[in-house]
Each structure stands twice: as structure tokens, then as C-alpha cells.
TrEMBL record:
InterPro entries: Glyco_trans_2-like (IPR001173), Glycosyltransferase_2 (IPR050256), Nucleotide-diphossugar_trans (IPR029044). Gene3D superfamilies: Spore Coat Polysaccharide Biosynthesis Protein SpsA, Chain A. PANTHER family: RFBJ PROTEIN, UNDECAPRENYL-PHOSPHATE 4-DEOXY-4-FORMAMIDO-L-ARABINOSE TRANSFERASE-RELATED. This is Glycosyltransferase involved in cell wall biosynthesis. Belongs to the glycosyltransferase 2 family. Residues 1-20, 252-287 are annotated as: Disordered. Residues 263-279 have a biased composition (Low complexity).
Length: 287
């Protein structure tokens, strides 16, 4: 049998076949990839972010959080086909959920707009997904990863929270609070995100594990924010992450203690303990 791939006859192409495109010498083809970038007043950083994005991605979805600078104008000048979505709520979690809904690609990649992520790493995430993973999770502490933008307090907090998630949910993460991830779009139906703030990454990491999805960590390097100041607050957002962990743990335990006690059709109802004792005493006297 010949190993040469022949183009299909005109009119016989399978649905969606033309969506697959060559990527690199390491990854021959890939399904359409949507990149979601939540941004608020990131006009100065977008040129650096867009410059690193691979030219083979399907679409860029920019979620604008009511920016007061030229974020939207800059994005459209850099990439005329960018899909701009207006965020109606507040917070990073709300922005990502809004962006996910607007995606049309089979694979979704989440990238921060501050210039801390290298878009060239996307090929590693996509490679993991097409190789069998459901969720490709970026890690700054996996072998080959690193960070230039983490204070001692944030490092300790991230390690403690990561250890808590691993212990309580049976995960094996090396990093928890990192926003560079990729996944198949169908995963959204299984994790059902419902948070608004920076705790969104933690919620995703917990729910992909509890849903039984296949996770692969991808070594990633986090660079310093190029311009501006981060909205992240270590203590405030750390407490939000902790509350999410406790809530998800409580929700996971709830079904065990909330068993259905309604009678089973055809089953003989159990007698009260008092009646059982009286019946035993009557049998002893009779004997």
C-alpha cells in the first residue's frame, strides 16, 4: 500500500478537514487553535504578546475588561482578524469564561496579556493535546520551567496551596496558580467554571482532576511583566484560592453523606429497633 497521501476528489472532503494545518517539523498538523487573552489597559504589552504568537493559530480572542487606554485599537492594528469581546463582568475568571464562549477552535489556549508568557511555547501545549492529553497545564516548577516574576511570599503560598490540592484531590501538580494552560474545548462541559477572580486557574486544576480528565504538565517560563502593574494581590487572592479549595473539597464529600434514603420499590421496610428487641424477648420467654 502506498504511503503517499492523495488529495480527495472535489466535493468529497470530510467536514472540517481543511481546518487542519501544518505547524512545524515537530508537529505535522493540528486542529484549529483559539488563543484567549484577557486584557485591561494592556496596550503597551500587546505588541510583545502578539509578536510571539505562532502564525498557524486559528484565531485570537481578546477579552477587553473595559480598558481606558488603546488596548482594543492596538490589538486590531496588530492583528486585523482579532476577535474582540467586551467583558460585562469583572475579574480574570469572568474574562476567561467570556472568552471561552467566543472560541470556535477545537483547542483553547489561555495566555496573559502582560508579556510574561512566551507564545512560542504553544506548540508544546498543542503537541501534548494531540498526543492524548485532555488538559495541558503549564508549570513553572516542572523540569525545564522557571519564573522571573515570583516573590518569596507568592512562592511559599503557591507551594502550600499546591500541596493541599495534591493531597485532597489526588493530583500530582508541581504548580497551581499559573495562567498558561491549554485544553480541548469539550473539557468546558465537564469542568463548568463558575468563578470571577484569579482563583480561576485553581478551580480549573481541581475540576479537571475530579472529572477524570488526562492532564499533562508542560514546563513553562514566566517572564517579568513588561509594562504596568499587576492586579494580583498575594494575600487577598491567596485567600480566594484557599476558599475555592475548601469549597470544592466540601462539594466532593457531599454526595457521600447525602445518600438517597427513599424506599426501594419492592423492598421490605425495616422494623424499628424497639420492635426488634420486643420480638427477641418474646421468643426467649416462649422457649
Amino acid at each position: 500500500m502506498s504511503s503517499v497521501l492523495r488529495p480527495p476528489a472535489t466535493g468529497t472532503e470530510p467536514s472540517g478537514a481543511t481546518k487542519y494545518r501544518p505547524v512545524s517539523s515537530h508537529l505535522a498538523i493540528a486542529p484549529p487553535v483559539s488563543v484567549v487573552i484577557p486584557a485591561m489597559n494592556e496596550a503597551e504589552n500587546l505588541p510583545y504578546v502578539f509578536k510571539t504568537l505562532p502564525d498557524w493559530i486559528h484565531e485570537v480572542v481578546l477579552v477587553d475588561g473595559n480598558s481606558t487606554d488603546d488596548t482594543v485599537a492596538v490589538a486590531r492594528a496588530l492583528r486585523p482578524d482579532v476577535k474582540v469581546v467586551e467583558q460585562r463582568g469583572k475579574g480574570k475568571g469572568d474574562a476567561l469564561i467570556t472568552g471561552f464562549r467566543a472560541c470556535t477552535g477545537d483547542i483553547i489556549v489561555m495566555v496573559d496579556a502582560d508579556g510574561s508568557a512566551d507564545g512560542q511555547e504553544i506548540v508544546s501545549y498543542v503537541s501534548a493535546l494531540v498526543s492524548g492529553a485532555d488538559f495541558a497545564k503549564g508549570s513553572r516548577f516542572a523540569n525545564g520551567g522557571g519564573t522571573d516574576d515570583m516573590t518569596f511570599i507568592r512562592r511559599v503560598g503557591n507551594a502550600a496551596l499546591c500541596a493541599a490540592v495534591n493531597r485532597k484531590f489526588g493530583a500530582r501538580y508541581t504548580d497551581l496558580c499559573y495562567g498558561y494552560n491549554a485544553f480541548w474545548r469539550h473539557c468546558l462541559d465537564k469542568i463548568d467554571l463558575d468563578c470571577t477572580g484569579f482563583e480561576v486557574e485553581t478551580l480549573m486544576n481541581i475540576r479537571v482532576v475530579t472529572a477524570g480528565l488526562r492532564v499533562q504538565e508542560i514546563p513553562s517560563h514566566e517572564y517579568l511583566r513588561i509594562h504596568g502593574v499587576s492586579n494580583l494581590r498575594a494575600v487577598r487572592d491567596g485567600l480566594r484560592v484557599l476558599r475555592v479549595i475548601l469549597r470544592e473539597r466540601a462539594n466532593r464529600r457531599a454526595p457521600r453523606g447525602g445518600r438517597d434514603r427513599s424506599p426501594v420499590p419492592g423492598a421490605v421496610p425495616a422494623r424499628p429497633a424497639r420492635q426488634v428487641r420486643q420480638a427477641r424477648q418474646a421468643r426467649r420467654k416462649a422457649s
